[in-house]
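Question: Send over one sample?
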Amino acid sequence: MSDPVVVTDEGGVRIVRMNRPEKKNALTAAMYAAMTQALREADTSDAIRCVMIAGAPGAFCAGNDIGDFLAAAMGGGLDTHATDFLRALAQGRTPLVAAVGGAAIGIGTTMLFHCDHVVAAADATLSTPFLKLALIPEAASTLLAPQRMGHARAFSLLAMGRPLTAAEAKDAGIVNTVVEPGALDAAALQAAQEIAALPPGALATTRELMRGNTDEVTARIDAEVAHFAKLLQSDEARAAFQAFMARKK
């Protein structure tokens, strides 16, 4: 059985690949933990200058594993590994590139607001159906999405759950470049290598100034998590999860 997260280093670029294709890379607690470790190790390494987050062919990330959500809704409580991963994204010092192909659902979309450069395949679709599960968006997306996209487009994505095509995501300022699916990994790696070759001191200062106050972002993550955990125990959420699982059978 292959590892659900595969981490490889190519020169100054660390590639963190979600590798659970049979579940379209739905994230489990173990996957969150592995990705968090990979990001934090990159922040302490002088050799790693950029991190590229990628998925399996045809699916970037289908969001959090719905079975884990259901277990939490039925009384298990919200796992902390996801929150650790979100904080690692927000607080990390290493530039982030994403290679997005196929479905990017839930956190598969919201993590992109923390990336410095996003390459999407033409077949990519971004969606955040949180409210359809009686939950709220996470990853500080309630702060970052309106800043990036404007309130109207952010509300359509986050609250109404309307998906974005790759071209629409580029127009909204989430995606930098759209390429053919077969060229996705190469294009993203080229961008990551370009970033990794920049003077590290000047890059770090520029990125820090551009990102602004990350304490505000972390505080929004924590606030969202508190609301998320409370809503997860609601009757609305339990009913939504059970209906979702019934449709999957």
